[in-house]
Write a structure and sequence with these properties.
single chain; alpha+beta; Immunoglobulin-like; 2 domains; 8 helices; 20% strand; binds dinuclear copper ion; respiratory chain; transmembrane helix; oxidoreductase activity; copper
Length: 341
C-alpha cells in the first residue's frame, strides 16, 4: 500500500515526458536515430551491470548471513588478485564498447559537412532570447523559424551574440552549444519527414531561457525553393505613408523586412506566415491547441513585450511613441505580411 503513492508519482513524472514533439525517443532523422541507438546501447549496458551487481549482492547477503549460534567474527580476507583483475577489465571493456560508437557518431556529422557542397548551410546565432538563421548560399536572414528541405544534410554553424545558448531539435538530434569567446561549433541534422519540429535553447541563458524556442519546418525541395524565392522579394511596407515612415524610423532600425532594415532584432520578413510570434505565442496557422490569430498575438506582443518574454531587449512600442491605434495598425500590417510558398 505504501508503494502505491510512490508508483503513482513515478507514473506522473514519466507522463510529463510525453510531449511527443520534444521526445528524443521518436527520432525523425538519421542523426537523431544514431543518438537514440547510443542511448539504447548505454541503457542496455547499464541494465546488465545492474542485474549482475544486484544478483551478486543478494547472493552474498544470503549465503554469508549470520547463522544461528554463530557468535565469532568470521575470517577476514584482504586482496584477491584474480578478482581485482576481473573487476578492472570488465568496466574497461564496457567503456570501450560505449566509447567507440559514441566517438564515431560525434564526428560523423561535424564540420566536415560545412564544406560539403551538397549540404544546405545555415549560420545560427543565439540571442537573448531568439534565434537568428542566416543562409549564406541564398543570402537570407530569418528568425525563429527555420525552413529546410527534407532529406538533405543541413549543416549548421553555431555562434552566439551574447551568452551561452544551446541549439537543440530533439526530434532531429543535437544538442550543441553556441559558445562565447568566438569558438564556433558545427552540427549537421537531417529531417526524414515533412513536418514542423520544435527546437529549444538547452542552456540556461537568462530570464526567458524557457521561452527561447524555435520552429523547424521541413518541406519538399520545390517548397523550399519557393520559400527562398518568396523571401527574396522586395520589402512590403505599411500602405499608410505616415505609418510606413514611423515603422521605418523606429522598427527598421533593428528589424528587417525584405531588403530593408537591420539585423539587430529578429527579421520580420513574412512574419504573417510563421507559426509563432516571438516563438511562444502560437499562431492559428500552426493548428496547435490554444493558438490565436496572428494579429491578436502581434498585438499582445507589441502592447507589452516584457510581459510575454521577460528580459528581452525589444523596446516598448509605447515608449517609442506608438499609440494603441498605431500598434493595432502595425499588427494588422505584419499579420498580412505573408510569404507565398
Ligand atoms: Cu538561450 Cu537558454
Amino acid at each position: 500500500k505504501r508503494l502505491l503513492p510512490l508508483l503513482a508519482m513515478f507514473a506522473l513524472v514519466l507522463s510529463g515526458c510525453g510531449r511527443e514533439d520534444l521526445s528524443v525517443l521518436r527520432p525523425q532523422g538519421p542523426v537523431a536515430q544514431g543518438q537514440l541507438d547510443l542511448i539504447k546501447l548505454s541503457i542496455s549496458i547499464m541494465v546488465v551491470v545492474m542485474v549482475v551487481v544486484f544478483a551478486i549482492a543478494a547472493y552474498v547477503l544470503v549465503k554469508f548471513r549470520r547463522k544461528k549460534g554463530q557468535d565469532e567474527v568470521p575470517e577476514q580476507v584482504e586482496g584477491n588478485f584474480k578478482l581485482e583483475v576481473i573487476w578492472t577489465a570488465i568496466p574497461l571493456l564496457l567503456v570501450l564498447i560505449l566509447a567507440v560508437p559514441t566517438i564515431q557518431k560525434v564526428f560523423a556529422y561535424d564540420q566536415i559537412d560545412w564544406n560539403d557542397p551538397e549540404a544546405v548551410k545555415v549560420e545560427v546565432t543565439g540571442h537573448q532570447f531568439w534565434w537568428e538563421f542566416y543562409y549564406p548560399d541564398h543570402d537570407i536572414r530569418t528568425a525563429q523559424e527555420l525552413v529546410i528541405p527534407v532529406g538533405k544534410k543541413i549543416a549548421f554553424q553555431l555562434k552566439t551574440n551574447d551568452v551561452l545558448h544551446s541549439f537543440w531539435v530533439p526530434s532531429l538530434g543535437g544538442k550543441r552549444d553556441t559558445n562565447t569567446e568566438g569558438t564556433v561549433n558545427y552540427l549537421t541534422l537531417i529531417a526524414d519527414n515533412e513536418n514542423t519540429y520544435i527546437g529549444k535553447c538547452a542552456e540556461l541563458c537568462g530570464a526567458s531561457h524557457a521561452y527561447m524556442e524555435f520552429r523547424v519546418k521541413a518541406v519538399d525541395d520545390a517548397t523550399f525553393d519557393a520559400w527562398v524565392n518568396a523571401f527574396k522579394q522586395p520589402a512590403v511596407l505599411p500602405a499608410d505613408t505616415e505609418l510606413a515612415e514611423k515603422f521605418r524610423t523606429n522598427c527598421l532600425s533593428c528589424h528587417a523586412v525584405g531588403d530593408q532594415g537591420g539585423p539587430i532584432g529578429p527579421s520580420l520578413t513574412g512574419i504573417g506566415s510563421r507559426e509563432t510570434i516571438a516563438s511562444i505565442l502560437l499562431n492559428d496557422i500552426s493548428g496547435a491547441e490554444g493558438s490565436k490569430p496572428v494579429k491578436d498575438n502581434l498585438v499582445e506582443w507589441l502592447m507589452d513585450p516584457q510581459a510575454v518574454k521577460p528580459g528581452n531587449t525589444m523596446p516598448d512600442p509605447k515608449d517609442l511613441g506608438f499609440s494603441d491605434e498605431e500598434i493595432e495598425q502595425i499588427a494588422e500590417y505584419l499579420a498580412n505580411y505573408k510569404l507565398d510558398y
